[in-house]
Write a structure and sequence with these properties.
mainly beta; seven-stranded mixed beta sheet; four-stranded antiparallel beta sheet; 11 strands; globular
Amino acid sequence: QLAENGGGLVQPGGSLTLSCSAEGRPFNMLTMAWFRQAPGKEREFVAAASGTYDSSTYADSVKGRFTVSRDNAKNTAYLRMENLQPDDTAVYYCTASSYVTRIMTFYEKLESYGDWGQGTQITVST
């Protein structure tokens, strides 16, 4: 079970941090990921952090602005978002995969996941 928190309205250039708690599976073995879906668009990959390896991967559109992290003791993953822009407006979803691979591009694919959080809205606007 996945649950996101932290969405809201932010001005361009602002920052937000999302959190995602995961229950029901060994958290340290999960790769935690974030996707987003803007109105009228398909759900797209944002970032992922491996639970087994010290690896992460990001979409090109968020590299240098977003940081994914995790606290295994709290069963929680985070997405720190900085310098937010109107194009970042979307519903952000947390997801998790128990499949273990060093090939991080695996975690960039929508079909690599089965369970999803309810989503949290982020709106970047003046």
